[in-house]
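Thread: "does anyone have the structure for this chain?"

Original post by V.I.:
We have the sequence but no experimental structure in hand. Need at least a predicted one for the grant figures.
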Amino acid sequence: MKKSLKKISLLLLFLFGVVSFTTYFPNTPIYFEVPKKWPKPIYDFSKNKITNEGFQLGRKLFYDPILSKDSTISCASCHLQQTGFAHVDHELSHGIAGRIGTRNALTLQNLAWSTSFMYDGAITNLEMQPLAPIVNHDEMDENFPHVVAKLNQNEVYKSLFYKAFQTNKITGQLTLKAIAQFIVSLKTTNSKYDKVVNNEEQFSEMEQKGYNIFKKHCNTCHKEPLFSSNEFKNNGLSVDITLNDYGRMRITNNPKDSLLFKVPTLRNIEFTFPYMHDGRFKNLNQVIKHYNSGIVFSKTLSEELQQPLNLSDNERVELVAFLKTLTDKEFLFNKRFSFSN
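Reply from O.Q.:
Generated one for you, tokens below.
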């Protein structure tokens, strides 16, 4: 009898708004699973715990052009799921009113292990990263207070923010936290390479030879299992005289950082073309040809590239065969990461 009265009393409190539904039914947490033998994530989940409600809100924001000045460009415009959340339509990112950016959009994968973002490492906090394209004149060209104002005028978003953060007031901080909950969840760990490592499959003879070549020539910069690093390297590209992009030196003003760019991940590399910070290479064969015989020497050239690879035609084919084993189709077509109304 006492339990029944308690339930009736609680229901009445909910109906009359005396207590919040979420007080008794908190958000649904999402566990971020780290694969065996992988390093510990760098992202501090304790400061922004992933919940299903926060993730769903972040996903909606990621695909919504409301973040741009004229509501025509969304995060997904330059980060397409089927191409590894990269931008394949153009060499350089595109923004509102047909404006063209200065760099190719980096892929969004396994960001929980990144210490910095952008090709020059200008951003060091994942929750702040979306601000860069939102306020960039050549991309979304919006000011963040106006973004927040637009969201506060939207009844759907007011409801979603309440579910995610139990507040009727939408703020910039909560908006960035929601987007971060989505993009930090873009984890790719189920390629053929991963299945081989887990003794579930085997490489073909050609793939194995390519893997051996990779470990000999590429693994220093593109470290397993992330196939990336949090380092900046000069990989021997000539300077595009139109862009005059000198990489990290733009941030540090240190000549030692001239032509240094962040080492990108090779996961899903088969689909994240075009390649390099300026999108100059359209396919993997051109990339390997560059490292094989196209290195431009300069004072800051990476030590690992002081000698050309000198790979034979067969070895180049084998290396490409291995790189394709880094494709994770489950990730590329996971509906959980797709657009949703």
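V.I.: this helps a lot. Residues 58 and 178 are 4 Å apart (CA to CA).
O.Q.: and The longest strand covers residues 232-233.
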